[in-house]
Protein 1
Amino acid sequence: MQRQELKAGKKDTRKELAFLIISAVVTITIVSTCSPLYPFNPWDDDNCFFTLGRGIIHGMVPYRDLYEQKGPLLYFLYAAAALISEKAFTGAWVLECIAASVYAVFSWKIVKLITDPPKYLVAVMPLFLCIVYTSKLFNFGGNAEELFFPLITILLYVGLKAAIQGDGLPSNKEAFLSGIITGALFWVKYTFIGFVIGFCLYILVLSIAKKDAARLWSLVWRFITGFIVISAPILLYFFANKATGSLWEAYFYNNIFLYHSRHKTYGLASIPVIKQFYFPINALAKISAYYKAFGVLMILTFSSIFFFKKNYRAKAILLSVITFIPMALTTFTRAAFIYYYGYIFAYGFCLALVPVILLIKWLEGKLSARGGLVKKVIALALIVFYILPVSMCKNLYLMFKPKSFFNQYRIAETINQTPDAKILTYKVMDSGYYLAAGVMPRNRYFCFLNIENDYPEIAEKATELINEGYFDYIVTSYFFEDELENYELVQVETYPYVDFTGEPILDGHKLYKRI
């Protein structure tokens, strides 16, 4: 009876849910360049995803017809976004709002599991969300890490709920849900499943300790069923389109055997066993140093374990550690420092709220003589403080800008002078020129990626088509100095750009036209 009352008392009220969702939507709308407040998202990663999504709704098949490196589920989601709007990132903004709402709701659920906060302290969530989403790791918004770390937060909630309110093992329904989430993570970016690997080890350890093989098998087959529910339609899609070979080559083989090969390590870091731990330690240290908010949130997250209660502390700490280590090992697997990889660790930042909320509760207790006034002042202060990180968002300089502010649309005006033009982004990633011009790529390797040094076919095919004069226009970097046979330079555009460090730089592109 006591356990049932505890569960009932911690259910989210409709007001709490509404407040959390509104907070998430408002935050994303302010900070993401996918939102209607911004004319364009200039991030090349997101434009690559959107080009794949647009290609799908035009009958093109990922990898076979348009080459990219992420998982197919991400492209299917961007295809859904393109159905909402093929000319803008409005659909991607909708996806972001859903993901951020999920993150807000399950973060608050985790906080309530551990701290049992008074209802008014839900006012801390807008500030928390703003700090997480104004991080420069967020960049312009819409990337895979941002859209999918909320799913890992759901898994963290499932594990902590079982540890705090149960015997440590999830229910059968939660095992099925975990399988579905794992399938989604796997088919977006398989390095995301490090948390799941640790979660499965945690369940295995507890099941062995309990000597309950029947319970373990019950969880395992439901987990596998959930994974199949996501995987089967994806595999059937590629099988029906005779593209399973392309899926294997682009998403698995090239990423596993080619993508990392050019990054060399030296000294002790070159020893296989050592480098597997050196890479994540080095990467997390760099991210924490470069992005102070990330470092503070990471420290507060780890400090939360000191506030776990004795009756569940061992299980909760085991879950936290055994999931974090493989998550780090699978996220950072090479010497190159990719800053936004670390953003996936926002899944657990809600734990950083534990010491903060306990401190506020302690202060409230000290000032309890003031009654409800203290609660109102604290709630108001938390909401007012929301303005500070919002004002520091690096994307605000793009808000309400005209489309002509961007190179992409100025160059698109020239491209659109040629009906049904064939264009190529050459030796640069797709920064949105296909989108701005309203055209689709006509060749498989529609832009350059970070793999061309180890996968020369991208450059070879592009050069072959250029020499044939296949394209009407070629877009390349402002710093490109080589001559292009059969093409002449017709336009050079630059504009100020704030990169992921928060520093302004000059970005530019050149447009070549077929002679």
Protein 2
Amino acid sequence: MTIASETRAPPTWSISRAGSSPVQRRRREAAADLADALATRIAGEVRFDPASRALYATDLSIYRQVPIGVVIPKDVADVEATVALCRERDVPILGRGCGTSLSGQTCNVAVVIDFSKYMNRILAIDPDSRRTRVQPGVINDEIRKAAHKHGLTYAPDPATHAYCTLGGNIGNNSCGAHTVMGGKTVDNVEELDILTYDGLRLRVGATNDDALELIKNAGGRRAEIYSRLKELADRYADEIRRRYPKIPRRVSGYNLDDLLPEKGFHVARALVGSEGTCALTLSATLRLLPWPPKRSLLVLGYPDITSAADDAAEFRVLGPDAIEAFDGHVVDNMKRKGKPLRGKPLLPEGHAWLLIEFSGEEQKEANDKAEKAFARLKRIGTHASGMRLVEPEGEQRLVWEIREDGVGASVIPGIEEAWPSWEDAAVPPERLGDYLRDFHKLNERFGYTATLFGHFGDGCVHARMTFGLKTKEGVARFRQYMYDATDLCLKYGGSLSGEHADGQAKGELLLKMFGPELIQAFREFKTIWDPHWRMNPGKVIDAHPLDANLRLGPDYAPRHVKTHFRYPDDHGSFAQAAERCFGVGKCRTPGDSGQIMCPSFQATREEMHSTRGRAHLLFEMMRGDSLKKS
């Protein structure tokens, strides 16, 4: 199927179920032909077997789509050959790193290109210019560790920083605790080396008028792209300036604002956050920021999370490096899961906590900043029920572990199942407390509970919700909730996503946030890069419905098998036990971090040898359909 250049219909490739219809047979034959062609053309690994496809069918979201196959490239030549062979056959592609996206953007009926095993190096680091160039599969923390040796850092550090990859950070416009100090991923990308579906490889970045004229005069596909981007930006400039919320954490939608003249017509930054729907990132040049050697952590306890939100914005003017929060539900769930809470004794009295980090060249400088901040807060009034200044680096790390473990503290199969989707809405920081009060009322109306944590200094809230998606009624309620939550967020001038991008979970909701004119601009932006809509189709723009492709939807009917063990915490169900892993990926943490969970993964760098991979294979075996002979 060929798609006209200005249309939006995604391809209908699917080989996820075995069958005997002529169409199904042709698809299986086409997949086998592609696999054979790839095996003869690339040095990397080609995996179209059912087990490999099952491993990549989900990410850290509520969604599931079985891919056509998986390619693990060894170098750029492998990526170019893979894209060329897929293009010859009109097959969609999806770039993937760690697979920890929360909105369904890293699972698709496509050929998945996994950059994490081989294309994972820091190519160069220049302390003088404060720049580094990296491959897409490099782990976020590896960049930060290398930079720290020079008194520098890479600011965006999501809670998954120990194992998430930079390509994923770029795809999602990831943020993290230290974006109060250094901004989102988009603010830290200087250049991208990219590959388009039609085979064009180019380096993009900021583009002044003289450079733009040179590109246009050279002619060819690159000139066409730049000319159309400039025309698009000029035509929609007023609407972009009017509709894009002016808040620290607007991540939703494409970054068309970075094509405006006041932002330097920055083509690389316009592609950040596009979730692999426009081009593949082959390497990235990033900016680095100063990283003072000493830190102090001010921990404030509150009677509830809304009181913590009320105070968070007050700290922004005092120059902290981070302003984070988590509620008591995170702590309670960690206890219920039997997880260690070594930092709990360091928390002051309260049922919610605010963490404010300050830095300095000397410890006294960092401590003085923290003490002055709390003194100012007391003068203007605070609801804090307790305060503690944590100075030793090891103790600070223990407190941070509680905050970062919130990402995996919310799903307790058989007891409480809380899922992402309304995951990371962001509002103006000064309005966060009022937003959360209305958010609690909304949840009460729908009968949902939420585990809350997030980047309160930037007005961004992570919420894991008890949606209940295994029944038709539950899915219908979830769908209505997503629309009502959107209205609430927009009422406060917010963004539907403040960190983890739109994917499928929020794609269909973007019309409410941006309006029909900018939605058309998004379609045109994608079409400029990907005329036939084969790059990660059905995500961000004209996305699949938010209640489609559910991992555990009403049609989920796992096998019931007889087992020797009784699994009392999972109602005697081995299938339910396999559901316990929903994809956090912490088991992929490198061994030098001191948190080795999975030695076999450390040795092989293979998803199937991670704890997550094994759990997902068991889940698919209990489900059955994607592992049938095809």
Protein 3
Amino acid sequence: MTKGNQEALELDPETGPGSQTGSAVSAPSGVQQTGMRELARAWLSLQCSMLSGVHRAVVLLGTAGSENSQPVALWPEDSEIYPALLDAARQAVHARRPQLYTGAAASASEPAYDVVACPLPAGSMAGAVAVEMSPRPEKNRQASLRVLQWGAAWFEMLLTQEANPFEHRLLTVVDVIAKGLEQEEFGGAAMAVATELTNRLGCDRVSLGFIDGRGIRIEAISQIVQIDDKTNLVRALDSAMHEALEQDGSIVFPESIDDRSGPNAAHTELARGFGANAICTVPMSHDGRAVGVMVLERMRKQPFDSELRSLCEYLASLMGPILDFKRRAQRPLTAKIAAALRERWSRSRANGQLAWKPVVLLLCVLAIGIVAYGETVYRVDAEAQLQGTVQRVVIAPFDGFLAEAPLRAGDLVEEGQIMCRLEDRELRLEHTSLSGDKAKLTKEYREALATHDRSQISVLKAKLDQADAKLALVEEKLRRTRVRSPLHGVVVSGDHTQALGAPVQRGQVLFEVAPLDEYRIVLNVDEREIAAVRTGQTGKLILAGLPNEVHNFTVERVTPISFAHEGQNLFRVEARLMEQGEQLRPGMRGVGKIETETRRRGWIWSHSIVDWLRMRWWSWWG
């Protein structure tokens, strides 16, 4: 492997978590000690699990001010020490700031890589961590550096604990942090941390609460899955957490002789109401601001000594940023936007950048006022439907049965075109029978004429007329079995293609036909807007089937009767379409806008709300 081009990475030493130097640490006698190596290995393994795409990593430690930093931990443990990682780590120790290298592949079989190195300040110790990762965008590399800086901060605290004779507490810190990082969701991480603290510190109950707005929301209580904010326990814990925040420090109950904490009435009530003989409450902070509170309780008479209190404060300082980061990442989008605006406002106030903002605000108000007082045409919106000016109904001429019905709604028809045919078999039989009766009567009539039988001639003449009338009626019915279109247009309704042989009754509507060259528009105007609509006003229509075409119309009639539709009272307004289009069809729907009068934009934007408020005022206090 060869080292790629070096990229200088300038970071503010006062903002990164890993930039804290802390107090002087009494280092062990040498970097080869077993405790130091185990600590570095555990810490490095945890850091690599927090980063994605890590190939290998190394930790160097040595005496501050010397060049004798040596590898004390590798990841994976059975990997080799690559010169590129050593060079990056030593460069970070020498420069005392994070370093970023971009390495190109040495051959086609080897992938490209990124190397991130971060110094590990530890008082009298000096060291660095270098991690080789798969290539990633600049934003993701910055995030990886931030994770290593956070890790450097609590690695320094772990070294401080390593110098303490209580070595078992190192494992407590590592395990608690590991439990918090294992869970992706904030709720699971908080519960895992509370449970681990309960087991590691010999507590009977550990509670974690986080600041939410102006209050505290308790997110996790060990051994309790469902948390009810109305229970006495939650209220007592909330009071104890507020008490610690007000005193801006940790509280131990009962107080020791050298304890300088203030009044702790809430802790006394918590101990008295729920049997706790020892309580330790520690605030958690992130970037100098309080984010939550941790409450540890013991039911047995085993108070929290000063060393255990310091350990709890260390744990709170480490877990606060981790849990707060998970909680903030899990917030909804609206909460994230509001928090970003508040942060921007606070930063502007701190930097003295608010002097020009009143001027900008004034200009915005003036611009809005100018726009609001400008005048434009007030248009009334309404749902619209296209209908034919004339709509003819095709009905069944007599009782019968459907024989043919090839047309359906949407088909174009010519005037006189057959739309359907009724069954005519019985009519033809009746016509044949009547024709035979007429022939017989005709023969008898001629015989009466030959014999000059006047009485018989009169009777037969009447019967012949009756037979002719019946034949004419049957012949007319036969002609009307073929139902024809009354005009040239389009079939608006009617579909009997699936009902052949079905009976029909005289006067039953079979089809509706509308012309293609004459249309009207029916608009359903809301009752709150009908007062502005007048006959003769113009407007524009856009149909859903033809959204790219605008059609002009003129209002011809405003009906004075309303009707209810989908919870609204609507008035029917009829308008005449100014131009006819070949693609227009009766029944098409869209939105029409009636141009009423010129109004100020401010009135147009606000009149609906003002009218609603007037109605509410009248209904309540009128």
Protein 4
Amino acid sequence: MKPRSLTAVIAVLFAAPLTFAQADSHVPDVHANAPDWVNYVRIGAWGLDRTDADTIVTKATRDDVFGIEVDNDIEGRYESFINPQEKLNAIRSVAEKAHRAGNRAFVYVAGTECITAHADKTPHTLAKEHPDWLQRDINGKPAIFGGGSAFWIEPGDEDVWVTPYATEWRKIYMQHIREIAATGIDGIYVDIPYWMTHFEGWENTWASFDDYTVAAFKQQTGLDAKKDLKLGDFSDPNFRKWVDFRMDTFTKFMQEIDQNAKSVNPQIKTIPEIYPGIEEEAVRVGADVYSLYPVVDAITHEYEFGEGDHMASSRMPFDWFAYRAGMESFRAFAQGKPTWILNYSWDGDEKVDKKESMENLAMSQVMAGANFWDAPGHSMAGSNDEATRQKLFSWIHAHEQTFYAPRLPMHPVGVYFSPQTRNYYAKDFIKSYRGILILLMQKHLEFQVVTPRTLAAFHGPALILPDVRIFSDEEKSQLKTYLANGNKLIVTGNDATKFGASSNIVHFPNDPGKAYSTPLEGDFAKANPDSQRDFLAVLGENPIGVEASSQIATSIASVNGMPHVFLANFAGLQGHVNPIQTVQKGVRIIVPGQLAGNAYFLPFLGDVKPVSGATLAGGTVYVLPEISKGAVFWIESAAPAPSGAASAPARAGGHK
């Protein structure tokens, strides 16, 4: 259950108007053809018990924040799990007020966690009345916790984690989902639907081994989870089946939530909150964002890559680049659905300015096309600085088409994300995959994260397989088609294709992604991307050239039919010491002659400026103004963007 600064919190999000008619007649249909509202959220929060909804909506409008998330968790509090009516009435009331104001609202519910308040003073707790519902470790120990186990659990409270296979619990849970959807609320926000493996002492349990879950696994595989597995041994075929089963469980759980909600209100959105990203934690807790994106409408990532307290104020440059690699992966997994980021900028770090930290976090996210949620400390509610948030949201609002219109590939190098390889060989795969992504960002090459869902549609000239060890027959067939079309495969580390020698296949047995990860993680400032020159040489030419410091993370895409370059500057940042970047001067963009045209530069928190170009042999070079935190460059050329870039609506208007 997510930590909250208040017992009941309203988180307010800025979003585009809905593109459909709501059952509530007060909801205006302002932009009939606008993209979905969830793609444009700008996220903030207020405590419901300190003010009323009318005041919150007024403050939201003032701060350029729009949409209301009600935290009156029915599923995660045993008292309301038994009797939800009072909270259902509150949800209906907030939804109606939000709609009258032209707003949107969605409600927080827990996934599998449930708290009984003052459990030490009542016989009526979930664990006491339904012990069979609880997740358990392999020795039968139930997932029951008290105050101090997590900072959101009060002394005397009972915190339990329920197996999603508990038949009676799941029936009641889904009934509540349908009742919530019937209130007219616009979305259901499901917090951490996980197996209990993240509290102290539970990290290596690979739970749950309760009777319901063991029986479900037996029915699906014929195996006894308590006897037939070598827990934690990924070379054991039976343990791999357990890993797959656990992950599939929560994908289907979220799919069932979505189906139940939409059976009552077809327009309602389901939004899970997930903290694991692309790394091994996704396998351990069983919530894999790659698998979840197809069955939900958006995902909120509490993705905290970095050391220590995970604050923006504490991040080093490597942390920022690795964080960016995660977000680029999420955007690829989403396939056009929105990526919300709930992360934290500052928590009392006396040596680092909170406003700078907030701006750094927002910049890093919007340059990746993700939606920014400002929150203080490790709370979901409030802001470290409301004036800074207002400035950020106003600027994002004014330029939302630049950041949130679809980003389409032009002439990218592909980097393959293999879910099954990550599931069974997480550390080796991520080291290779992330190392290559950071290398391409530092060399300012256009890249595209490719997955099994998007492999057939990938048309870039080269595809990198970063230590990929597992391919399905379908994946191999698609790779053969890709090669037959004259494209190039670049295999680093292990070669699971078994395609044999070919002029279109280049092998790097000494994996450059892993090799480059070592200096990146050791001393990022001294890591030299050109140390991998042999690997870089086989990637081919990039139509759009970017000459900039390797401390700038770059991504290139077509937006609204125009080539865009998104630049995030992390030069000079030092965790707990310095949150102000070294200003970058003389960054140059070189484009082919047919793409030359009117060029524009948008500095982070600044205004759009025209950029003049100078003709070179076969192309045009644009020298950019100074870049402090980040910037976007684009060209309105007469010629269409290169292959893969479909036309899109013209850049116009904001969502209100």
